[in-house]
C-alpha cells in the first residue's frame, strides 16, 4: 500500500515531466521550422531582389545589344551566344566521355587496384574547387597546347569540371537496372557490348540525362575557371557562325575565337563603380538563375518521375 | 568430302573473331574514357607543381610560408602567403558559423519532425538551391547584406569579410541540410521505434538516438562544406575585397587565395613571370587545403560509420 501511495504521489511529477518534454518537442519543432524558413526565405529574398533590381532591363534589346560603355545601351548578345557555344563544346566532350567512363566502371571494370584508383580519382575530382580547373586550363590548354583564350579552351575546362557529375549519375542510373535484364540478354546470346548498349544504356537513359542536365546547368553558372583562363570581359563582336551557307556548311573557326559568357559579363558589370551597370548585372543574374533553376528543376522532376515509374 | 565442311565453318569463325575484336576495341575505348579522370588529376597536380617549382626558384619556400606580406604585383614584391590564408580561413569560419547550426537544425527538423509531404516539397527545393550559381550570391553580398550590416556598424567598409562570409554561409545551408538529412534518413526506423517504446519524445529521440547514429555522415557534411567554403571564389572576389591583409577581424576587407587568383587572371600578367607563377603556388596551397579536408571527411565517414 505504501508503494502504491508513492506512485500516486509521483504521478503529479511524472505528468509535469511529460508536459515539459512535450513543450520541448514543440519548441524544437518551432526552432527547426524557423531555421529552415530562415534559409529558404533569405534565398527567396535574394531572387526577388535580383528581379526587382534588374526589372528595367527585362527587354528584348538587352538580349540583342553588344556590351557598351553606356550602361543603358549595353546588352548581353555576345555573352549569351558565348555561353551557348561554350556549352556546346562542353556537352559534346563531357557527355560521351562521362557516359563511357560510367559504363566502363559499372559494367566492365574488374575489381582490382586499378579500378580503385579510377574511382578514388573520380570522387576526389568532385571535391576540387572549380578555380583549380581554371589553373589547369591556363597551364595546359592555353599555353602548353596553345589553344589560347578561346571557346575551345573554356568548353574543355568546363567539360573536365562536370565530368565527375556525369560519371557519378551514369553509374547511379546503371545500378538501378536489375541483373535479370542482363542475364536475359546474355541468355539469348548477346555479346557484352550488345547487353551494355542495347539494354543497360538504353534503360538508364533517363537517369543519365538527369545528371547531364545538372552538370550542364553547373557549367552555365561557373565563373571562376573561365575568368582564370583569361576570358575577355568586353567583347563587341560575335564568333564566326558555326553554320555557313556554302559547303561544307560547318565552320569550326568559332572554336578559336575570343568570347565572354553570361556570368563573366555579370561579374564585369558588378565590378564597375557606376550604379547603372549594376542594374544590368542584376538582370543578367536573374536570367542566369531562371535558366539554371529551370534546368535543375527539370532534372529533379525527371528523377522523381523515373523513380515512380520503375517497372521491374 | 572434308573441304566443304571446313568452308562452312570458317566464315563463322571469322565472324566470331571479328566480333571478339570489336568487343575488345569497345572495352579499350570505354577504359580510355575512364582514364580521362585519372589523367585530369595528374594534369592538375602536374601543372600546379611545374609552375610552382619555377616560382620557388625565385622565392624561397620559407618566405612563402612565413612571410606576412603578399605584394607580388608591386615594385617591392613580397611573397608571404599568410595574409591570403588568413582571409580564406576567416571568411570560411564565418560561413560555417552561419551554416552549421542552421543547416543541422534544419536537417533534424526535416528528417525527424516534418511530415512526409513537407519533406517531399522541401527536399527538391534544397537540391535546387545547391545549384544556384555563386556569382549571383556575390551580388547579394555586395548590394544587400553589406548595406544591411552597414546600418548596424556605420564604419564598415564596402568590401568586408563579414558580409561575404555570411552570404557564403547562406549559400552552404542547403548543402549541409541536404547531406545531413540524407545521413539521418539512413538511420534505421527500428532505432527510433525502440526509443519511442522506451517513452522518449521526438526531441529526445532526435538528439540522443538519431543524431549520434548519423554523426559520421553529419560531420562529413560539415567537412565537405568547409572544403567548399575554402574553395569558393566569386562571392569573396566580389564582396570581401582584393587587398591582402593579415587579419582575422571580419569587419576588415581582405583577399582570399581564390580572390587573388581571380585578380591576377583579370589583369594581363605576361606568361612565365613570377606574378603569373604565383597564382599556381597559391592554387597549390588551396588544393592542399581542400584535399586535406576532403580526405579527413572521407576518413571520418569510414571510421565513425555505425553499421546496422
TrEMBL record, chain A:
Signal peptide range in chain numbering: none
Top-level lineage group: Bacteria
Topology class, membrane: Multi-pass membrane protein
Subcellular location: Cell inner membrane; Cell membrane
Any one biological process term the GO annotation gives: phosphate ion transmembrane transport
GO molecular function, one term: phosphate transmembrane transporter activity
Membrane-crossing residue ranges in chain numbering: 26-51, 84-105, 125-145, 151-168, 226-245, 277-302
A Gene Ontology term for the protein's cellular component: plasma membrane
Keyword flag Thylakoid: no
InterPro entries according to UniProt: MetI-like, MetI-like_sf, Phosphate_PstA
Domain ABC transmembrane type-1: 80-299
Keywords linked to the UniProt accession: Cell membrane, Membrane, Transmembrane, Transmembrane helix, Transport
UniProt record similarity statement: Belongs to the binding-protein-dependent transport system permease family. CysTW subfamily.
Protein name: Phosphate transport system permease protein PstA
Automatic annotation (TrEMBL), chain B:
Major localisation: membrane
Pfam family membership, one: BPD_transp_1
Keywords: Cell inner membrane, Cell membrane, Membrane, Phosphate transport, Transmembrane, Transmembrane helix, Transport
GO function term, MF aspect, one: phosphate transmembrane transporter activity
Taxonomy, superkingdom: Bacteria
GO-annotated cellular components: plasma membrane
Membrane topology note: Multi-pass membrane protein
Subcellular location: Cell inner membrane; Cell membrane
Chain ranges of the ABC transmembrane type-1 domain: 85-297
Transmembrane segments annotated in the record for this chain: 25-50, 93-113, 125-149, 161-184, 205-225, 279-300
GO biological process: phosphate ion transport
Family: Belongs to the binding-protein-dependent transport system permease family. CysTW subfamily.
Role of this protein: Part of the binding-protein-dependent transport system for phosphate; probably responsible for the translocation of the substrate across the membrane.
PANTHER family reported in the protein's UniProt record: PHOSPHATE TRANSPORT SYSTEM PERMEASE, PHOSPHATE TRANSPORT SYSTEM PERMEASE PROTEIN
NCBIfam families xrefs: phosphate_pstC
Protein name: Phosphate transport system permease protein
Amino acid at each position: 500500500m505504501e508503494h502504491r501511495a508513492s506512485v500516486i504521489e509521483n504521478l503529479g511529477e511524472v505528468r509535469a515531466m511529460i508536459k515539459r518534454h512535450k513543450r520541448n518537442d514543440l519548441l524544437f519543432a518551432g526552432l527547426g521550422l524557423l531555421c529552415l524558413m530562415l534559409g529558404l526565405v533569405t534565398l527567396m529574398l535574394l531572387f526577388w531582389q535580383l528581379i526587382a533590381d534588374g526589372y528595367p532591363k527585362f527587354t528584348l534589346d538587352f538580349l540583342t545589344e553588344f556590351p557598351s560603355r553606356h550602361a543603358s545601351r549595353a546588352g548581353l548578345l555576345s555573352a549569351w551566344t558565348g555561353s551557348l557555344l561554350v556549352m556546346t563544346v562542353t556537352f559534346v566532350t563531357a557527355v560521351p566521355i562521362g557516359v563511357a567512363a560510367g559504363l566502363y566502371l559499372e559494367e566492365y571494370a574488374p575489381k582490382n587496384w586499378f579500378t580503385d584508383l579510377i574511382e578514388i580519382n573520380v570522387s576526389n575530382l568532385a571535391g576540387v574547387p572549380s578555380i583549380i580547373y581554371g589553373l589547369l586550363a591556363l597551364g595546359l590548354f592555353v599555353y602548353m597546347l596553345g589553344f589560347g583564350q578561346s571557346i575551345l579552351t573554356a568548353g574543355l575546362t568546363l567539360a573536365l569540371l562536370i565530368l565527375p557529375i556525369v560519371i557519378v549519375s551514369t553509374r547511379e542510373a546503371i545500378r538501378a537496372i536489375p541483373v535479370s535484364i542482363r542475364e536475359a540478354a546474355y541468355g539469348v546470346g548477346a555479346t557484352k557490348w550488345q547487353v551494355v548498349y542495347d539494354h543497360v544504356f538504353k534503360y538508364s537513359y533517363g537517369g543519365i540525362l538527369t545528371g547531364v542536365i545538372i552538370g550542364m546547368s553547373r557549367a552555365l553558372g561557373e565563373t571562376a575557371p573561365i575568368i582564370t583562363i583569361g576570358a575577355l570581359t568586353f567583347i563587341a563582336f560575335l564568333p564566326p557562325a558555326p553554320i555557313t551557307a556554302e559547303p561544307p556548311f560547318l565552320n569550326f573557326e568559332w572554336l578559336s575565337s575570343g568570347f565572354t559568357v553570361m556570368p563573366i559579363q555579370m561579374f564585369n558589370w558588378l565590378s564597375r563603380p557606376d550604379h547603372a551597370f549594376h542594374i544590368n548585372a542584376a538582370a543578367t543574374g536573374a536570367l542566369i538563375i531562371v535558366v539554371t533553376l529551370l534546368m535543375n528543376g527539370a532534372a529533379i522532376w525527371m528523377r522523381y518521375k523515373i523513380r515512380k515509374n520503375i517497372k521491374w | 568430302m572434308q573441304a566443304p565442311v571446313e568452308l562452312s565453318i570458317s566464315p563463322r569463325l571469322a565472324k566470331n573473331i571479328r566480333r571478339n575484336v570489336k568487343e575488345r576495341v569497345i572495352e579499350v575505348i570505354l577504359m580510355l574514357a575512364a582514364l580521362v579522370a585519372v589523367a585530369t588529376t595528374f594534369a592538375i597536380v602536374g601543372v600546379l607543381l611545374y609552375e610552382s617549382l619555377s616560382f620557388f626558384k625565385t622565392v624561397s619556400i620559407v618566405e612563402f610560408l612565413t612571410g606576412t606580406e603578399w605584394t607580388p604585383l608591386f615594385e617591392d614584391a613580397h611573397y608571404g602567403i599568410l595574409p591570403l590564408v588568413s582571409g580564406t580561413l576567416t571568411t570560411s569560419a564565418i560561413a560555417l558559423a552561419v551554416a552549421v547550426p542552421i543547416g543541422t537544425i534544419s536537417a533534424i527538423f526535416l528528417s525527424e519532425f516534418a511530415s512526409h509531404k513537407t519533406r517531399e516539397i522541401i527536399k527538391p527545393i534544397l537540391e535546387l538551391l545547391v545549384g544556384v550559381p555563386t556569382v549571383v550570391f556575390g551580388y547579394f553580398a555586395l548590394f544587400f547584406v553589406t548595406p544591411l550590416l552597414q546600418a548596424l556598424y556605420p564604419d564598415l567598409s564596402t568590401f568586408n569579410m563579414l558580409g561575404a562570409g555570411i552570404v557564403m554561409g547562406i549559400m552552404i545551408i542547403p548543402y549541409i541540410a541536404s547531406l545531413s538529412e540524407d545521413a539521418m534518413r539512413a538511420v534505421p526506423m527500428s532505432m527510433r521505434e525502440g526509443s519511442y517504446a522506451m517513452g522518449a519524445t521526438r526531441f529526445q529521440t532526435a538528439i540522443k538516438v538519431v543524431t549520434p547514429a548519423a554523426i559520421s555522415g553529419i560531420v562529413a557534411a560539415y567537412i565537405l562544406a568547409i572544403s567548399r567554403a575554402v574553395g569558393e571564389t566569386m562571392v569573396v572576389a566580389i564582396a570581401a575585397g582584393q587587398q591582402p591583409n593579415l587579419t582575422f577581424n571580419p569587419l576588415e576587407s581582405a583577399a582570399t587565395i581564390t580572390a587573388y587568383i581571380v585578380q591576377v587572371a583579370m589583369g594581363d600578367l605576361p606568361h612565365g613571370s613570377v606574378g603569373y607563377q604565383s597564382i599556381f603556388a597559391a592554387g597549390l596551397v588551396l588544393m592542399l587545403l581542400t584535399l586535406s579536408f576532403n580526405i579527413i571527411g572521407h576518413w571520418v565517414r569510414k571510421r565513425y560509420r555505425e553499421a546496422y
